[in-house]
Structure to design on (249 residues):
């Protein structure tokens, strides 16, 4: 990985610059942040995989953790080994993080540990729907391996790139009911409260954190409003992302 003289990862710098110059993506992420926070109960919030800490523009009091340092990140730590006491957070939020984690089940146990009873883990992740799967397979830089077993034990790789990913992991864990039941059996302190499908049009047209965009900022809000009116059975085939809510029991 190429780093700048201050020691920051070059990809972080690029992402932050896109964030600052691209109003459409800021509006989209503000809507994502709103959904994350609305699904959390009262109490302190932990933001995992905070990246460039843009979530703090929506809620400055969150505690942001990332494996890489960056201005605004409060704690540099591995999500599999969180440096917090048990039961201290009312909510744990994540945006495009789970599919980057090397050992997702180990992480889910750790997230459950730091949550209070009744606390919630809320994540927004790529969804391998009928439409989105084609896009992610052919046009996205991160791989999709639907044959991977997210429940399998994995040896720790100390040299692993934090940006390594398998975009299929969230769908393999939460898209279908049998997998959700297996998650609950494997991590008995968590219950899957809801899985919903969204990011139909505005997000793919925005280009995400790429420099290009096919949607002007003025159309982001009305497009998001239109997406809410799309029936659930269609969203399940068209969505590019899923929002998953798990609760500590």
């Amino acid at each position: 990985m190429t780093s700048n003289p201050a020691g920051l990862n070059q990809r972080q710098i690029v992402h932050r610059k896109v964030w600052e110059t691209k109003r459409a993506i800021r509006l989209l992420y503000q809507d994502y942040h709103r959904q994350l926070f609305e699904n959390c109960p009262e109490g302190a919030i932990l933001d995992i995989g905070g990246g460039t800490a843009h979530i703090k523009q929506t809620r400055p009091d969150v505690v942001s953790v990332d494996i890489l340092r960056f201005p605004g990140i409060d704690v540099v730590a591995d999500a599999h080994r969180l440096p917090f006491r048990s039961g201290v957070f009312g909510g744990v939020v994540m945006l495009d993080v789970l599919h980057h984690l090397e050992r997702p089940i180990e992480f889910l146990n750790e997230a459950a540990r730091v949550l209070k009873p009744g606390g919630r883990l809320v994540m927004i992740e790529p969804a391998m729907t009928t439409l989105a799967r084609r896009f992610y397979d052919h046009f996205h830089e991160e791989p999709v391996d639907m044959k991977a077993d997210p429940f399998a034990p994995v040896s720790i790789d100390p040299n692993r790139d934090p940006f390594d990913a398998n975009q299929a992991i969230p769908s393999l864990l939460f898209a279908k009911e049998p997998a959700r039941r297996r998650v609950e059996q494997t991590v008995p302190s968590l219950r899957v409260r809801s899985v919903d499908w969204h990011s139909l049009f505005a997000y793919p047209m925005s280009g995400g954190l790429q420099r290009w965009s096919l949607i002007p900022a003025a159309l982001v809000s009305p497009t998001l409003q239109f997406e809410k009116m799309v029936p659930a059975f269609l969203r399940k085939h068209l969505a590019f992302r899923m929002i998953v809510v798990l609760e500590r029991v």
